[in-house]
Structure formats: structure tokens, C-alpha cells
Amino acid sequence: MLNIVLFGPPGAGKGTQSQKLITHYNLVHLSTGDLLRAQITQGTELGLKAKKLMDEGLLVPDDVVIGMIGSALETNPQASGFIFDGFPRTVAQAESLDRLMAAHGTHIGCMIALEVQEEELVKRLLERGKTSNRPDDQDETKIRRRVTVYNTETAQVAGYYATQQKFHALNGIGPIEGIFGQICGLIDQHQAAVPETPAAATNGVKA
Ligand code: AMP
Question: How many independent structural domains does the chain possess?
């Protein structure tokens, strides 16, 4: 299985790159932001509670998003791998993800972080807000709060993966295809180093 965490602040391009990656590698896209917005659209109690926090640019409690990811893993037993977008956003979420992956007999292969400076993020999100219909994309104060929340609560997740030698950072500014090529380069490198099948693993190749 190929399980990738695509990381970076809001507006870094995770959603855009995820769409290309799921096609290229035949992965299931799991975006906690999308899963939460689906709950809001369905008008569930969870969605109503989450909406208040999301509209303010604040994080939804860990147990809520961890529960959603756990369910999504259960409902995709045939997946050949997952791309996690917008999750994990806290170290507690990263630890839970490791436990969930282990329970499914798999693990996170690598984490790829797209780096983009705040002014560019604000510009991109305000532009997206013109068509995305997302309240959190339409107000500069909320956008800047999301970036602050990323810097204070989420950025440390990079360290969690760095200690596992799984962290890779890329410049998220530039042509979409160029960034996609670099992400694929990292994933291919990772796959070449880690054989997919148990047979290959017993042939003396590093697992
Ligand atoms: P996104 O679509 O990833 O930009 O997420 C939109 C909003 O959903 C965030 O600002 C948070 O309020 C909430 N959210 C999404 N993913 C998570 C997560 N992993 N942990 C906590 N809150 C999240």
C-alpha cells in the first residue's frame, strides 16, 4: 500500500495536487476538510458543531476528525493506498493515524510538505473564496487566523514525521505540473526504496 500525507498550510495546493496524485497512483483521497463539509451539507449534528469552528478558522476537536478517518479507512478496504490531505493537523492526530494504519496492517510511507509564504496564501485563498462558497476563504482575518493556527498547532506535525525520517519539503510556489512532478519524484524514490510485496522484502531489500 502507498499511504502519503500531503502537508502544508491552507492554500498551499494540497487539494489540487491530491486530485492529480489519486489519478496517477490510484489512491483514495481522504481530506478531513471535505469530510467535514459533507457533514455540514447533510446537516448532521457533527456538521453543525464543526461549522462554527471551521467558519472561525479554528481546528475541530481531534476525536471528531480521527473518528472520521477511522470510518473512512473501514469503508475503503480495497484501496491500494490513501492520500491524507489536511490530516493530521496535530501531533495527537498523527499518533492516532499511526495506530490506525498499524491496525490495518500498513503504515504512512512519507509526508510531503508544500511550503508557501503567508502573503501568497492569503492572496490564493481570497481568490478561491470568490468561487469556493467557503466562508473561511472570504475573510482575510479568518484566513490569517487559519495560517496562525497552522503555525502554532499544525507545523509541529512535520517534526513528528521528521523523527521517523519520513518528512520531505517542497516549494509550493510555481507551475502546478512542475510541483506535481517533484512530488511524484519523491514518491517514486520512496517506492523504489520500500518494496511493495512481502516477497521483495524477504529478498534482502530494505523494507
Ligand atoms: P481544509 O479544507 O483542510 O482547509 O479544512 C477546513 C477547516 O476544517 C479547517 O480550518 C478546520 O476548521 C477543519 N479541519 C479540517 N481538517 C482538520 C483536522 N485534521 N483537524 C482539525 N480541524 C480540521
Answer: 1
- Let me know if 89 is a catalytic residue: yes
Q: What is the dihedral of CA 48, 58, 27, 3, to 10 degrees?
A: -130
**158 touches ligand 1 (CB under 6 Å):** no
Ligand 1 pocket member 59 (CB < 6 A): yes
Residue range of the domain that includes 24: 2-198
Instruction: Find the angle CA(100)-CA(88)-CA(80) to the nearest 5 degrees.
Output: 50
Determine the Cα–Cα distance for residues 73 and 68; give it in Å rounded to an integer.
9
Active-site residue flag, 128:
yes
Q: What is the pTM of this model?
A: 0.93
Residue 89 included in any domain: yes
Considering the domain boundaries, does residue 162 fall inside one? yes
Measured distance CA(112)–CA(17) in Å, rounded: 11
Residue 50 domain-assigned? Answer: yes
Catalytic residue from among 20, 37, 49, 128: 128
Q: Is 36 in the pocket of ligand 1 (CB under 6 A)?
A: yes
Query: In sequence order, which residues have a C-beta less than 8 Å from that of residue 75 and are 6 or more positions away?
Result: none
CATH code of the domain in which 8 resides:
3.40.50.300
pLDDT in tens, 48-75: 999 999 999 999 999 999 999 999 999 9
Is the alpha carbon torsion for 29, 82, 144, 57 positive or negative? positive
Residue 63 forms part of a structural domain:
yes
Measured CA angle at 157 (ends 156, 163), to 5 deg: 95
